[in-house]
Every structure is written in C-alpha cells, then in structure tokens.
Specification:
Elements lengths: L6 E8 L5 H10 L5 E5 L7 H13 L3 E5 L17 H21 L6 E2 L3 H9 L1 H11 L3 E4 L4 H5 L4 E6 L23 H13 L2 E4 L2 E4 L4 E3 L7 H14 L3 E2 L7
Parallel strand pairs: 1-2, 1-9, 1-10, 2-3, 3-4, 4-5, 5-6, 6-9
Antiparallel strand pairs: 7-8
Helix pairs in contact: 2-3, 3-5, 4-5, 7-8
C-alpha cells in the first residue's frame, strides 16, 4: 500500500569528504537528490567545505540542512559521547549556528536539521537529547526515524526518514554497522528497498518484518556505488508514479 503522499524526497549526507575522489562523488550525487545534510564540524567539515557544499546544492536546487554530531572527528561521530549536558548542548548549537551563518551569507535558508551517526541513534530514543536538537534547530524541521523522540520534539515540523542502503531490524532500528550485511551492497536490492519504504509496504527481514511510513529516503554518499544507487532509486520510484521533490515538514 502506498504511503500518504506520492511525493518523496531523496536526501544524502554531504560535506564529509576526505579526498578528491569523495568530493567528485558528492558533486555527481548532488543533481540526483532533492535535499542534503551538510556536516558542520562535529564529525567532519569546516567553513570552507560547508560553503562549497552549500553553493553546490544551490546550483542544483537542493534544499540544505545541518548535519550536527557528537564532537568526535576521530570516530566520525559514530560513538556515543553523552558527557556533560551543557557542553554537548553548546557543541550541537555551535555546529548548526556555523552552517546557518554561512547560509545567511550565501542568501540561503536552513531547511532542516538531521543529526549524524550515534547522535541520530541516541536522539531517536532520548527525549532530552531530541529536545536539545530541536532547540538548536531554531524552527527548522527535523529529519529522523519515524515514531522517534525527534518526531515528538520537533517544533518546525518533522520528516520521517528511511534508508535505502542499510538493513533494518524488526524493532525498526538499523542493524549495527559492524554486523555482516548491515550495509546493503547490491544496487538493485537498494532500489527495491527504497520502493518498499516509499510505498509503506511491509519490509521482510531476517528476524521478522516491519512497515514504516516515511517521507524521505537517505542515500549515503560514502557508500560504494552511491551515484549508481541514486540513479536506480530515482528510476524505480518515478516508474511507480512518485514525484521526487524536497518536502515541506509534516506539522
């Protein structure tokens, strides 16, 4: 059964590149998506990469959001670092503010905030952490897992996200990256999962099945075959009648 809308957003996490090859991948991916979340210093990124990525997004009409994380470049933001609550609050706020400043200078607006890595997973089930991110967003919508604490904490609206290149568990959580098969490698399988999620159909899993209602599909720019995946996902969705466009928040 199809979801509540035939419009679907395609997003990617951007500005995380470590070399010229990854920059080239992001440049090729940008025209194929409709919104992007830009790393803003916590796990990757600096003023120069934020500005360059924002300008690339503007050139292709892609909506721009902030991608804050735990302040942990060493572990690429994939390790939970709760620590002092005030220090964490300041770190998240500073990251979003840094991107917002650059967007203001470029005549652009902040479309959304989507936490990265461990912060994303932790905020899904931690109301206080989700509220902290919502406060830092200053009215921009949040992107996160459907039915998560972020959905209930959002103040500027919420867009529920599904992943085309990650395996799910029957609980609705993503399979941990360290587990075999956690990342879907086959491009056709990624496209098939994208269509299932977009339709709100039941997704068969190794440990059961889930049905998720989502508004946006994430394609990880650092997954091998990201550009080919985006092309395959667009093709299968458009063939099924979906319009691919950046979404307005669900109030």
């Amino acid at each position: 059964m199809r979801g509540r809308s035939q419009t679907i957003d395609l997003n990617a996490d951007m500005g995380e590149y470590a070399d010229a090859a990854q920059r080239a991948i992001e440049a090729a991916l940008m025209p194929l998506i409709t919104s992007c979340s830009i790393a803003c210093g916590g796990h990757a990124g600096d003023d120069a990469t934020m500005r360059a990525t924002a300008r690339l997004a503007r050139n292709h009409g892609v909506a721009v959001g902030a991608h804050p994380s735990y302040p942990d470049v060493k572990n690429f933001g994939r390790k939970s670092l709760r620590g002092d609550i005030n220090t964490l609050r300041a770190a998240i706020s500073d990251q979003v503010t840094a991107l917002r400043r650059i967007l203001d200078e470029e005549g652009m607006v902040l479309h959304h905030v989507k936490p990265h890595g461990a912060l994303y997973g932790d905020a899904a089930g931690d109301v206080a952490l989700a509220e902290m991110i919502a406060t830092a967003a200053h009215g921009a919508m949040l992107i996160g897992p459907p039915g998560s604490a972020m959905e209930f904490a959002s103040r500027g609206g919420f867009v529920a996200e599904g992943f085309v290149d990650r395996r799910y568990l029957a609980s609705g959580a993503l399979a941990p990256r360290g587990e075999p098969g956690a990342v879907i490698e086959d491009i056709a399988a990624r496209a098939a999962q994208a269509l299932t999620l977009a339709r709100s159909d039941t997704l068969a899993l190794a440990d059961g099945a889930i049905t998720l209602r989502i508004d946006t599909l994430c394609i990880h720019s650092d997954s091998p075959g990201a550009v080919e995946t985006a092309i395959a996902v667009r093709n299968i969705l458009e063939a099924d009648g979906f319009t691919i466009a950046a979404l307005e928040p669900r109030k």
